[in-house]
From TrEMBL:
It catalyses: Endohydrolysis of (1->4)-beta-D-glucosidic linkages in cellulose, lichenin and cereal beta-D-glucans. Pfam families: Glyco_hydro_9. Belongs to the glycosyl hydrolase 9 (cellulase E) family. The keyword Hydrolase applies. It comes from Zea mays. It is an enzyme of class 3 (hydrolase). This is Endoglucanase. Its EC number is 3.2.1.4. One of its GO terms (biological process) is cellulose catabolic process. The active site is at H125.
């Protein structure tokens, strides 16, 4: 294999083992009951950065769900974190908790996925959503950027930046830090939700 040090089975095992150890350590950071657990908000959101705060928990939840499927299909019954044992189900529970937060199970009772549920951001920082259809803006769009009114168009499926460390969110079009959707956020949430809708035992082993 191309990543083996000397082409021997022992070399392959050593290199692959280091990848596994790293993956296990990352998963331990994500599990809330682990001694090495990363910081979470009071509402339960894994929190890494203030700007576009949802990108990290959504990506982490996606990876946790993928790893739980790996555990289920490879026969790995448990993950050991500082002497504590966790299962594939624990990883899926973490992944689901982050998805639930995104979809409205949070202190704001707000879905950060635009168009989902009854309460979601109405003033998303998005040109296509903010400017009425058919309007010729020329070189000026400030009146729509600064308008206090809800967007005339719904950017359905867009995932906004997310809450602050105290679980608060300000639905303002000029609040780029929290209210700007990105393709990498929205793509990740699709992967996370589709992964949670499938069941680990159905996944086929790659071996």
């Amino acid at each position: 294999m191309f990543f083996a040090g000397d082409g021997s089975d022992a070399g392959q095992d050593e290199v692959l083992g280091s990848y596994k150890d790293t993956a296990d350590a990352v998963m331990c950071i994500l599990l809330p009951e682990s001694d090495t657990a990363a910081f979470r908000t009071e509402g339960g959101l894994l929190y890494v950065a203030e700007w576009n705060s949802l990108q990290h928990p959504v990506a982490s939840a996606f990876l946790a769900n993928v790893y739980s499927n790996y555990m289920a299909t490879s026969g790995k019954s448990e993950l050991t974190c500082s002497g504590k044992s966790f299962t594939a189900l624990d990883l899926r529970r973490f992944a689901k908790s982050q998805a639930d937060y995104v979809l409205g199970d949070n202190p704001m009772k707000l879905s950060y996925l635009v168009g989902f549920g009854d309460s979601y951001p109405q003033r998303v920082h998005h040109r296509g959503a903010s400017i009425p259809a058919g309007v010729d803006t020329g070189c000026d769009g400030q009146e729509w950027l600064k308008s206090p009114e809800p967007n005339p168009n719904v950017a359905t499926g867009a995932l906004v930046g997310g809450p602050f460390k105290n679980d608060s969110f300000v639905d303002d079009r000029e609040n780029v830090q929290q209210n700007e959707p990105t393709t990498y956020n929205s793509a990740l949430v699709v992967g996370l939700l589709s992964g949670l809708l499938s069941t680990a035992p159905v996944a086929k082993s790659l071996s």
